[in-house]
Structures are given as C-alpha cells and as structure tokens.
Amino acid sequence: MRLVRATVTGLRGRLLVLVLAALLPALGLMLYRALEDRREATFHAKADALLAAESAARTQSQYVEKAHQLLIGLAQLPAVRSARPEECSLILAGVLRDFPVYANLGVAAPNGDVVCSAVPARGPVNVADRAYFRRAVARRAFAVGEYHIGRITGRATFAVGIPVLEQGRVEGVVFAALDLDWLNRLPQESRLLPGSVVTVLDSQGRVLLRKPDAEKWVGRTLPESELALRVLSRQARVATVHGIDGVRRFYGIVPLLGADSGADVYVSVGIPTDAALAGATHKLQRDVLVLGLVGLVALGIALTAGHVFVVHPVQLLAGAARRIAAGDPHVPVRVRHAPHELAELGRAFDAMADALQRREDELRRLNADLERRIAERTDALEAANRELSHQASVNQTVLDAATDAIALTGLDGKLLVANAATQRLMELFGVSPGATPAEVVEQASMGTTDPAGFAAERAAYVADPEREAMYDYQHAESGRWFRRYSGPVRDESGAVLARIYTTRDVTLERETDRLKSELLSTVSHELRTPLASILGFSELLLEAHGDETKRTRYAQTIHGQAERLTNLINDFLDLQRIEAGGFELMLERCDLSDVVREQVEAFTAASTRHTIELTAPGERVPVLAEQARIAQVVANLLSNAIKYSPEGGLVSVALDVVDGSSRVSVTDRGIGIPADQRDRLFSKFFRVDSSDTRDIGGTGLGLALCLEIVEAHGGRIGFESTEGEGSTFWFEIPLAGDEDERGARSILVVEDDHAAALLLVEHLTTVGYKVDVVASGEQALERTLADPPSLITLDITLAGELDGWQVLARLKSDSRTAGIPVIVCTAGNGRREAALLGAADFLVKPFSARTLREAVARLVPSGKGVVVIADDDEAVRAVVRETLADSGLDVLEAANGAEALALVRSRAPDLLVLDLLMPEVDGFEVLERLQANGRSARPAIVVLTAHQLSAAERRHLSSRAVSVMEKVSYSSAKLRHVVDQVLDGRAQAEVRART
Amino acid sequence: MGPVILVCDDQSALRELVRATLEPSGCEIVEARDGDESLELARSLAPDLIVLDVMMPGRSGLQVLDALRNDPRFEQTPVVVLSARAQLAEREALAQAGATRFLTKPFSPRELRAEIASLLGART
C-alpha cells in the first residue's frame, strides 16, 4: 500500500499519471466508436430480424393464397364432393406428391370426421374442433386455421379449409395442412446469423413453432417468458429481450396472418445479440490492444526521460540536502541534462548551502565561545557553592551550638530548619522522628501539662501567619518550663515566608522568679513583724500613763524588737551583697585560733548560764580569710548554740587541722534539730521549729549567711545533730599553708623519641622538678586534664593522631589548660606559629640543659628564690646546681660576667654565686657594675673562687658579698646554709618593709 | 468573762502586743505559737475571735484558716489575718478561704481594737 502510494505520489508516479491522462482522449474516442459500431450492428441485426419475420409472414401468406386456389380447385372435384374415400384419397395423394409444400390434404364430413386423406390415417379422425373447420363451416367460405400438430401426420402444420357447398348446404370441408418445414430453412435463406431462431406463438403464449427447437418448446405455453410478453403486448415490432431459452436476442415480430385471418399468431425472428455484436466487440478488443501497446511505449519513454531529466537532478539535490543536514561539508551539486528550472534550483541550492555553511561556521564559533564562558561561569558557581556549603555548615554549627532550640517551619507547618537543641527538645517531648506537622503538635502537646492550650496556641499561628507571641509551657514529666517565642519570617518585601520558633528552657528563671517573689513576701513579713511590735508598743506606751512597770516593759520590748530589726536588716543586706556577687572578701593571712578565741571570750562574758570550752592546737592555724567575716560565722554558731540550749550548760568549741584544712566545730547539749527540718537549715528565713524553740529569737538568716561566707572562703559548712541531745555545727576553710606545701613543680614532657625524653627528664629532675613523660598528643591532653602540670614541653612530631601543633591548639583553647605554659621543643621551624598558637617559648633541638632550665625557671618560678651561678667552668656550675637541686630554688647559669649581668637584669635573682676569673667580663667587674646599681635590685652575692685571695682582696670582697668561698674548701652544706641565711634574711626584710 | 480571743503568731513580741492592746478592754487572750497549736487551742477553747498571722512555721496561716473553715464550729468565727503588704497574692487565697478581715503589719493598736470591737459587736 505504501509502495503504491509512493509510486503515485512520487515523481515517477506523477509522470505515469500524465502519460495516461494523455491517452485518455484516444481511449474515449475508441470507446465512442465501439459504441457506435454496436448501435449500428444492433440496428442492422434488428432490421434483419424484422425483415426475416416479414419475409416469413409474406411466405406464409403466399402459401395460404396458393392453398386457397388449390382448395377451390379440389372442392370442385366430384370425387371430393361426393366424398368417395378411395378415389378421393388417391387423387389427394397424387396432388400431395406434386405439392410437397403440403403435409396432408383431406376431406372432413360435416360432423368433422375425416373421410378421406392424402396421408392415410391409422384410424378415424375427427377435426370438428379445429379452427379452420369451425370457421369454414360457420362462414361457408375459405378459412384459416391455426398452427397445430396434425392428428394424422403428427407434424407441425398450419391448416386451412374450404367448405363444399351443395345448394348452400355444407356437405363437407376440404382441408390442407401446410408443412412448416420452410420455416426451418428461413434462417439460411435469409442468411441469418448462427443461433438465430424462428418462433411462432399464439395469443395464449403457446409456442406453436420454433425452429430450431432443440429444447422441444413446441406445444408449451410460456406466457411469462419475456419474448411472449413482448409479442403479446404488441408494443413493438422489434425488441431486445431474452428468448425463452434465456439467450439474449434481437427480435423482429410480425403477425403471421392478416388481421382478417382471425388468428392471433405471430412470428418472431431472433438474432443472438452476441453474434450480432461480435464484429463490433472484436474491433473494440483490437483497438484496446493497440492503444495499450502505444500507452506502454509512451510510459517507457516518459519514465526514462523523466528519470534522466527530472528525478535524477532532484535526487541529487535531495542527497546534498541530506548530507548538509547530517553536517557533511557541502559539495556543489552539478545538475546536467535538467530543464533550466531545475538547473536554476541547483544553483540556488548551492548558494543556499554555502550561506548555510558560513552561518554554521559562525554558529560553531559562537558556540565554542559560549561553552568557554559557561565553563568559566560553572567554575565560579562551583566555587560559590563550595563557599555556600561551607557557610551552611558553619551556620549549622552555629545553630547547633546555640542552647536555645531554633526551628524554622514553612507556612504549612513543615520543619525546614532545626538545630540540635530543637532535636533534643523534640526527643524530650517524645515526638517521633518523621512525624507530620500535625503529629508533631499532637505528640508534643501530650507531653505538656496543658495539651489543649499548647494546641490552641499552635492553631493560632496557623490561623494568623503574622502572629508574634511568647508562650510558656511545661513538660509534664520533668516539670521543666519552656518559653517559646514564635514570629513570622519575612522576605525583603515583607511577605511572610516562614515561621521561626526559638525555645528556651526557663525552668531556672521561673524558679528564680518564684523564689524572688517568695523572698520578697518573706522579707516583707519578717521586717514588718518587729516593726509592728515597735509601733504597736510605742503607741501603747504613749497611752499607758502612770503605770511605770508596764511602760518599762513596753520600752524594753520596743528596744529588743528594734535591735532584732537592725540585725535582720544587716544580715539580709549582707546576704544580698554576697549573693549579688558584689561582695569581695578582703583576704589576708591570719591565725584562725586568734579569731575563734576572741569570739569565745566575748560569748563567755555575755552568758552566765553557759560554759564555753575551747580546744585549739598550740600552734598558729594560718588561713587566708577576712577576719571579720569568719568571726561573724563563729559568732553565729556560738549564738545558735546558746540559743538552742536554753537550759544552759556546756558549749564546746574545737579548732583542728584536718587534711590541710582548718576546722572549727561548735557543739551544744541543747534541743537538737528535728530530722525533718535538717535539709532546710541553711535556707533563708528558716528557723528551727519545735515547741521548744518558740521564744528563741533570730532572724532566720544567720546560717544562710554563714554558708555564703564559708563557701566564699573556699570552705564548707555542716552539722551533726541528735534531737534532744544537741548539735555540732562545723565549718572548714583551707589552710593558707606555705607555698612549698603546694607540691613540687611538675613538668609534663610530651616527646615520642625515647632518648630525647630521657635527656629532658635528666635535665629537669636534677634541678628538682617532678617530670612525667608521654609520647602521644592524646595522652598529653588526658594527663593534662587529670593532673595539670606546672609546665609542658611539647615536641611537634608525636606518636598518635595528633601532632604537636594540634595538641598546642587544643591546650590553648580549653580554659582549664590554657594557663599552663608550653615550651615547644622541636628540630624544625615554627617559632612564629608557636607564638601565634600561644606557646610560651620555642626551643630548637638540640638545646643545652641550661637553655632548657632557664626557660623552665622563667616560666614556672618557684617563688622561693632565684639563684644565678656565674662560672665559666661547667663542672663548677654542675656542682653548685647539684647542691641547690633540692632547695626548690630556680637555678640559672651564666658562663661569663656579661651573661650574669644580663640574668641579673632580666630575672632579678635573690642570690648570685659568682666566680671571679671569667673570660670577657670577670667577677670583679660584675661586682663593680652591680655596686653601681641601686640597692634594691642587687642580689646577695656569694663569691666562689679558685683564686687565692689576699687579705686585702678578701676585705674588699666582704663588703660587697655576703660570703666568700674558696673552691678548694667548697662544701655543699656550707653553701646551702649561706643560701638559706640569705633568703631568710630577705624574707624578713620584706616583712619588715611591708609592716 | 469577756470574749475569748486566740492570737496566733510565732513572734512572742507580736502576741504580747495583741495581748497588751486587747486585754485592757476586757478580752481574754489565748496565745498560740504556730499553726498546729492554733488549731488545738481553737478546738479546745472555741474562741470568739481569732487573730491569725499569715507566716508561721509548720502550718501556715492559710492552712490553719482552711482547717478552721472546714470545721462547722468555726464557720462563723471571725478571723483577722495579719499580713504584710507584699503578700497580696496570699491575701486573695486567704480571702477565698474565708478570712474576715485583714490587718497589714505594722498596724496600730487602735486599729486592731476597732476591728475587734466591730467584729465582736456585729456578732452579738
């Protein structure tokens, strides 16, 4: 089907259609001619049929006329008239022989019986029913009968008869039966076409005769046949109808006898249409064949020429177009043998292809340019994205670091941003992960103490995106309070984009608020109660005239209450100040035993009913404290002990030193503290309440104040009590102690190289430091947190994940370790980095023990004193160093006088152990220079020399040095003794200077 | 015998003030030092009037008042509550619990006398 369509719609197909169209007129003409031929043949055939039929009728008439003449003659014959059978038959037979046109001749009696016959009858025959007989009898004249089958001859005949009149009387009828055999010959005689038929029909449609009659139609009545209808209708003399045998023929139809004959009989001659038209048909076939051949030739020529002149050039152009479309470079199309229109098209096509090529080149160039620019932009975009994602991660980190829960939701309630605190909050409220907004609200609300309120607040946000509100809610399970701010998030134009929630745990704030208001209420009440007494009694006092006893009592009460009020206000203000943090202790070194003793004495004097007993160690109990405050605490405890042992009795005060702390305890034999009230004992305004304490005064602030004071001193306070037997209240504050009791200076060496570590340990332990070594950064951090050293030496290359820089950074970023000085010890570079990261010093390996010790001593001074050993002999320095190693002093070394002077300037040592004979600047010069300095900056000097000193030299030196030792008589004990003396003297001088 | 007045306050000076104020006008003063004692004495003595401090150790004034008002014998007994000005919130609760009058500390003895007289007068 597609092929057909392609053929028809293709150029070739169109050409074929054109050729065929050109043949159409010829075909039309040919058909017209064929039609004409047929019409003519039909006309001729019809005419032939009619003529044949007319000829038959005419022949018939002639036969009848001849028969009439014969019968007239025969009727005159006496043999016939008399009807003598033998004679008559003989005569008639003779006549019959002469006239073979008759089938029979005979005479019938008036009753119809045949009395004589040319053809002998085989029995009696009656013809009374025959038409010719009845008409002849009736008309008494010649009559024609009908076509019928003779009863004697048995042949198809046509009979006529004539009456034999005897005096006007019919004596018989002479008849003749005409043989119809001539009809058989009619077609040949008329030269009719083969297949032609002659048919005689009567008015009933009965076939009287048919020649040839292969089908034996004769005698049958076929009124329904087309021919019979046409014949009987008498409409036309010619017709083209199907005969009774079904063959289509042209018929000529003619009445066989004249109208006067009285018989409706017709003869029709039919010529088969096929035969009649055969000539015309044959001619048509021949013409069609010729035309077809001509057409084929024409098509062949058209196809060949069309291909060469049209199709090929078009295909060439199409191929070129396809190549261009495929992106191949264009090769000019050479269109030959084509009509000039196509050649023109080819040239236009080439021009167009060239233009296209140019444009494509241009396009390609632009594309390349564009791609380059896109690549640039993509790079820029990627960089921006990286920056952005970094920024986003920073943002998220910041968000997560926030303690407030921060969340952003879309207007549909969907969570867009949530920080870690939000996640924690949602977990607390049992919000399942992946819950829808509605579920979040539902689940969260169930966790609150007021689900309906929570949900309503949320609904209000949904209803009004502009809503901005604070909402407090409580977590039912933990009782924690949360304050949530929620408000709209807008874009630049002010349109609401989202909603932000920031939620803060306000449990503490609310508790504080509650406590504050409670405190206010309590304070108000506590202050107003004595005030009420004062005002009330003073009013009563004014009223009570005369009654002196009463007046005195009132005045006493007023006085007592006024005092109480004063104490209350004082205590309260103290407490407030301490709590507000605006309270700074004026710490000083003092002897706690003095403080306690003073208070005991004061209370002993005040109470006559109580015996106050003090146990204290003989020595001083030094503490760093504000004396007045500690005295206040002791007084408070004593006052309580007295108040709560109303019966009087013994109050024991003990001062002890326990585990580096001083401990003061006050024990009474009083009423004790009921177990259920013990936890509230140190709360403000709490007073022990039992039936025995009703009248014991007190502000209820004393113990609260004691607690604050003791804690501010870094101590603790507590009590033990047995109800009914008494209580012991105690407090502890740290001993001031001497500095050397605070533990040896410890150094953490962070070094992965074992040998290097050993060396460092050696260098440092020999001068009295406690040294620990770790090999990795992780261990270093762990150790530093667990037991903070005084100093850290840090290698950069370390075992473990962290390197020295990372360790340093972590140490310096943690407030717990940031204060520990770090010396970076490395073979590499990085002084600047070390300084930036907060290292205290930077030593490049290998470094001398001296360098290390100096650096360490500078960073962690012992506080006991600094000694500089100035000697060019390392061995001497080592000996002196050894001697002083356990003294806890910072020992610095100088290899010559210049170094010694530099150290004196920078470290202000307490003692200078000075050799006299040194290169460059010698000991004498050092002494001179120091002499020139002011007295205060000058160290004490011990001269240690190998030089044999003269008496004069010795005197000279003695005025400048505290001691002069000769190396030959060096004794470590002596040096230690001298050093101790010097330092003690300095310390005392300092004390004197301060006081 | 004058009317019996129960004074409940943990501060003896204040109880004494009430006594000194009211005794001259013929009232009999009974002192209670805390909430529990207040209730005990109220039940045993059936006082004509009660002066009640808000803030006491043990049972607070409010708890005492609640207990009193839940006892049919004290439904009608006038209760004068002593409170400080800052205790407004508590006052509301006390009023609901059935406090008859409030006196703010410090108060004048005359004021107290007048209140008591009017309350006792209204009752008889």
In short:
Chain A is of the alpha/beta class and 995 residues long.
Mean pLDDT of chain A: 81
Strand order of the largest sheet of chain B: 2-1-3-4-5
Q: Using the alpha-carbon principal axes, give the shape of chain A.
A: elongated
Note poorly predicted spans of chain A.
690-695, 739-743
Spatial strand sequence of the major β-sheet of chain A: 2-1-5-4-3
Span between termini of chain A = 130 Å
Largest interface, C-beta within 8 A = A-B, 32 and 34 residues
Regions with little confidence, pLDDT below 50 for 5+ residues of chain B: none
Main pleated sheet of chain A: 5 strands, antiparallel
Q: Averaging pLDDT over every residue of chain B, what do you get?
A: 86
| Cα-based radius of gyration of chain B, to the nearest Å | 13 Å
Structural class of chain B: alpha/beta
Folded structure, characterized:
The complex is a heterodimer of chains A (995) and B (124). Chain A is of the alpha/beta class and 995 residues long. Chain A is 49% helix and 20% strand. In chain A, the strands form seven sheets. Chain A has a five-stranded antiparallel beta sheet, sandwiched between helices. Chain A has a five-stranded antiparallel beta sheet with strand order 7-6-10-9-8. Chain A is elongated and about 235 Å long. The model of chain A is unreliable at 690-695 and 739-743 (pLDDT under 50). Chain B is an alpha/beta fold and 124 residues long. Helices cover 45% and strands 19% of the residues of chain B. Chain B has five helices and five strands, in the order βαβαβαβαβα. A five-stranded parallel beta sheet of chain B has the order 2-1-3-4-5, sandwiched between helices. The radius of gyration of chain B is 13 Å and the shape is globular. The mean pLDDT of chain B is 86.
